């Protein structure tokens, strides 16, 4: 039987202060959707058992566990409360067993992540049961008290907007009211923080786009001949796929992408295949579109459809992928892999500029370096790679709500990362490094009577947390100037970066946006239409911009200066102020063109970005 950290009530019932909390604000539906937990109003119907801790962590995700372990190891009385029966979240219930890591030129995430990683073999994939047992052992060794299968979990919010604890009903039907100096929301979707009134955006809504990365059901497959799979992949070369000891990934010659699903809203991409200790394999490849990440019924319906599709997918792979000839479908993960939902409106936000500038500051408590690599968002795109940083830093203020409530941290994928930066910061190892910092900070804050908001803004407090993290073995990036990613010496590099900041330009894994590439009239029109949406939040004007372009030239025609000027004038008249006249010279006078003299021939991509960037920052005169 695996070790389990248990709730020791006797250790917590230490004459805690009464929870005479006045009625708090109701759980509300805002830009973040309807919260899955609600704010407590007064006492539950049955008088609850009252407990007091220093740090309370909500959730069972890897980040929640790390935050709880770090807080407890720093001397805080720590309680972890989760609706789940098993601990490990995405790695256990979602069975995502292939790690997204950056280990060159060195490991970027050490500390508690590395401790856990060594417990599961320190490979690029891991056995799910071993991962679960490792999380259990970490919690038990740190003395974290754990409540599983909790329901009706609600934050207690006292005026003026201070989270002071939670109420919940345990699996044995006993009600509890817990006060805590610091509360850490480590649930994937930050449900507790949303219910407490923290501000969030969902997906790309902050940029005016109702989209987010697709979800996935990890599939379990039995009967795969792992040796034949590895040998077959290696014989075909790295363009086909890459094979390691326990993981294989790649496009597999396009065979998975050629699969035709029997249901709408599903698509198979290249495979990530991880070997389990029992000989089965887990496959991350099936994309599910159109779900509401904050609606359990929607997620369950998506999971049901994916399970129905599973046998057909395995049959297809058996015919096209080495080692799969005798493969059989063995089910799917208990929970979907939800890549993206809420983004916290935090005291400070990690941006695409932070990532591509390789920005490291004296306030950083974790190092990131994974590519800006976004999974597909619609059935019509294959994902985006905006660029690859060398290294950037994460700060405590990214885990603290901007406008309150106080007393609260948010760790994991719903922390304060903008949608583009999120494509890098979403990976769990970085989230675990950030969560360790939050746990250390929460323990120190509880001990010193310092709130999360004050702690994140206090240079001395942050410095002390950094020093303690270093003592714990965490990796902290060295503070020095670094060259930004991409062609920084190009005349229109700044414009390219303006486009990347809203996901409108890509540079790929080579950090080469190919700024000398030709541009068509229609592609330029689409670029400006997207600027209207993502910078000016006027999506309804996009079609008018496209119509103006099509009146000026054929869709596939190279973008000439005259056509560019005409389309830019039409867009400026809709979004800002009309240039005083037609033609390139009028654009320049209006600040919409970089030079009074137009290019001698058709515009290239860099020049198109320069015009689009000028439109992005243009505004109407008062």
Please give the structural blueprint.
Elements: H1 9-12, E1 49-58, H2 62-73, E2 78-81, H3 89-92, H4 111-119, H5 128-142, E3 145-147, E4 151-158, E5 162-169, E6 175-185, H6 191-195, E7 200-202, E8 215-216, E9 219-222, H7 226-236, E10 242-243, E11 247-250, E12 266-275, E13 281-288, H8 296-320, E14 328-332, E15 342-344, H9 352-356, E16 364-368, E17 372-374, E18 384-387, E19 392-395, E20 408-410, H10 419-425, H11 428-448, H12 452-457, H13 459-472, H14 493-500, H15 521-534, H16 542-552, H17 561-575, H18 584-589, H19 605-617
Helix pairs in contact: 2-5, 2-11, 11-13, 14-19, 15-16, 15-17, 15-19, 16-17, 17-19
Which residues sit in consecutive blocks of at least 5 with pLDDT less than 50? 1-35
Which oligomeric form is depicted? Answer: single chain
Strand count, sense and barrel status of the largest sheet are: 7 strands, mixed
**Overall morphology:** globular
The radius of gyration is 26 Å
């Amino acid at each position: 039987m695996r070790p389990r950290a248990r709730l020791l009530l006797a250790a917590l019932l230490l004459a805690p202060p009464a929870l005479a909390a006045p009625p708090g604000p109701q759980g509300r539906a805002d830009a973040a959707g309807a919260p899955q937990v609600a704010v407590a109003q007064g006492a539950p119907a049955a008088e609850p058992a009252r407990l007091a801790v220093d740090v309370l962590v909500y959730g069972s995700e890897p980040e929640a566990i790390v935050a709880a372990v770090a807080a407890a190891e720093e001397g805080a009385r720590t309680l972890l409360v989760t609706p789940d029966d098993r601990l490990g979240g995405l790695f256990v219930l979602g069975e995502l067993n292939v790690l997204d890591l950056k280990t060159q030129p060195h490991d970027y995430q050490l500390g508690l992540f590395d401790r856990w990683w060594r417990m599961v073999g320190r490979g690029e994939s891991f056995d799910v049961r071993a991962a679960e047992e490792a999380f259990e052992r970490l919690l038990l060794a740190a003395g974290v008290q754990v409540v599983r299968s909790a329901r009706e979990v609600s934050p207690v919010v006292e005026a003026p907007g201070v989270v002071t604890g939670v109420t919940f009903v345990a699996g044995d039907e006993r009600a509890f009211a817990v006060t805590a100096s610091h509360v850490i929301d480590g649930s994937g979707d930050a449900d507790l923080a949303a219910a407490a009134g923290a501000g969030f955006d969902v997906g790309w809504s902050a940029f005016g786009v109702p989209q987010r990365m697709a979800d996935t059901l990890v599939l379990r497959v039995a009967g795969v001949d792992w040796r034949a799979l590895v040998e077959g992949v290696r014989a075909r070369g790295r363009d086909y796929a890459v094979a390691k000891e326990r993981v294989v990934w790649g496009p597999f010659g396009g065979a998975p992408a050629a699969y035709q699903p029997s249901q709408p809203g599903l698509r198979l991409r290249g495979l990530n295949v991880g070997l389990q200790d029992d000989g089965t394999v887990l496959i991350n490849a099936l994309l599910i579109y159109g779900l509401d990440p904050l609606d359990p019924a929607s997620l369950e319906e998506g999971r049901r459809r994916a399970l129905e599709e599973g046998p057909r997918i395995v049959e297809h792979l058996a015919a096209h992928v080495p080692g799969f000839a005798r493969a059989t479908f063995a089910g799917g993960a208990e929970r979907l892999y939800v890549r993206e939902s809420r983004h916290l409106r935090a005291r400070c936000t990690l941006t695409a500029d932070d990532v591509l500038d390789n920005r490291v500051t004296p306030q950083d408590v974790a190092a990131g370096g994974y590519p800006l690599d976004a999974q597909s968002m619609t059935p019509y795109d294959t994902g985006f790679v905006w660029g690859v940083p060398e290294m950037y830093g994460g700060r405590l203020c990214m885990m603290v709500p901007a406008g309150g409530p106080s007393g609260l941290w948010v760790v994991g994928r719903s922390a304060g990362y903008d949608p583009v930066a999120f494509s890098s910061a979403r990976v769990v190892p970085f989230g675990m490094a950030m969560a360790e910092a939050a746990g250390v900070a929460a323990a120190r804050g509880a001990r010193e009577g310092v709130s999360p908001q004050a702690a994140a803004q206090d240079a001395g407090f942050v410095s002390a947390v950094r020093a303690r993290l270093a003592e714990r073995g965490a990796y902290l990036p060295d503070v020095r100037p670094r060259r930004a990613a991409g062609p920084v010496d190009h005349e229109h590099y700044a414009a390219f970066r303006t486009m990347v900041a809203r996901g409108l330009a890509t540079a790929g894994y080579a950090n080469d946006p190919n700024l000398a590439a030709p541009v068509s009239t229609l592609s330029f029109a689409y670029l400006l239409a997207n600027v209207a949406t993502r910078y000016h939040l006027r999506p309804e004007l996009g079609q008018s911009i496209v119509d103006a372009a099509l009146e000026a030239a054929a869709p596939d025609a190279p973008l000439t200066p005259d056509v560019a000027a005409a389309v830019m004038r039409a867009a400026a008249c809709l979004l800002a102020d009309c240039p005083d006249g037609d033609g390139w010279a009028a654009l320049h006078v209006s600040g919409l063109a970089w030079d009074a003299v137009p290019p001698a021939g058709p515009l290239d991509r860099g020049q198109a970005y320069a015009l689009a960037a000028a439109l992005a920052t243009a505004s109407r005169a008062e």
